[in-house]
# Entry
Amino acid sequence: MVSRGELFAECRDLIAQRDDETAEFDTTCIFQDLLGDKFPMFAPKEPVPDDKAAEIRDLAKRRSEGYPLQYLLGQWEFWGCNFKIGEGVLIPRPDTETLVEQVLDICRRENLSAPKIADLCSGSGCIAVALKKELPQAEVWAVELSDTALGYLRQNTQLNGCGDIHILKGDVLKSETAASVRGLDILVSNPPYLTSQDMSELQTEVRHEPASALFGGEDGLDFYRAVTELWKTSINEGGYIAYEYGMGQHDAVKAILEKNGFTDVELRRDGGGIIRTAAAKNIIRSGFGS
Ligand code: GLN
# Structure
C-alpha cells in the first residue's frame, strides 16, 4: 500500500503540471475529502487503502485535466457557509462577496433590518443565503430558472438553516416573473455577463460551468438592460438595485441604471481590485406604470 506522503507527492506533481500554484491546495482538499481527515499530512507514513488510493488518483487526474476542484469536491465555501454544487450550477466566487457586503452596507445605512430582497439568477443560492444569515428578519426571494440549479438552491437553503427563503422558479427576463415579486427594498443579482468574445476564450475549468449562467449576450449586458427595465416597478421608491458585472462593464451598467431612473450609483471594487459591483437608488414610484 502506498503511504499518504508518497501518494500526496504523486498527486501534487500531477496537478502541478497543469497549475503549479494551486497543486498543493488542490491535493490537500482531495485528501481531506476522500480520507475524511482534516489534517491528512499529520500522518504521512499512514498507508492508504488501495481503493481509496485509486479514488484519490482519479480525482487528481481529473483535476490535472482542468476539471474544477469545486465540482470534484461537490461543495464550496462562500461567506463562511457551505454550498453544495456540481455541474449545472455556477461555482460561488469570492468576488461575489463584494456584492453581499454592498447590500449589507445599504441595509445598515438605511436602517433596513427586515428588508424585502429578491436575488435574481440565484444559482446555488449563495447570495440569498449569505443575506438571510446576516439579516434573519429579511424576506428573501431567490429566483432561478434552471431545474438543476434549483435542486442545489433548495438543498443549500435547507442545509444552511435558511429554509424560509422563498424560492421561485422563473425567467427573470419575463414580465410575469417581475410582476409576481413586488414591493422590493433591494433587488440583487449576479446575472450572466460574459460576452461572445469571453465565451470563445473560456478557461478550461469555466467551460465545465453552465453557459446559461455565464453568457450575457454579444456585449454581456443583456440581463442588465432587460432586468433593470422589467423589474424597476417591483422596487419600492427609495429601494435599490445591486448588480455584479464583469471587468470593464461598470460604465455601461451605470448608464443602464441611470437611463432607467436610478440615482446615486455607487461602484465597488472586489478583493482583486476590479470594479465589480454597482448599487443604485430607485426614485420611481412602484406600481405606477413605466
Ligand atoms: N464571474 C464569472 C466568470 O468570470 C462569470 C459569472 C457571471 O457571468 N455572472 O467566469
Notes: The longest helix spans residues 50-64.
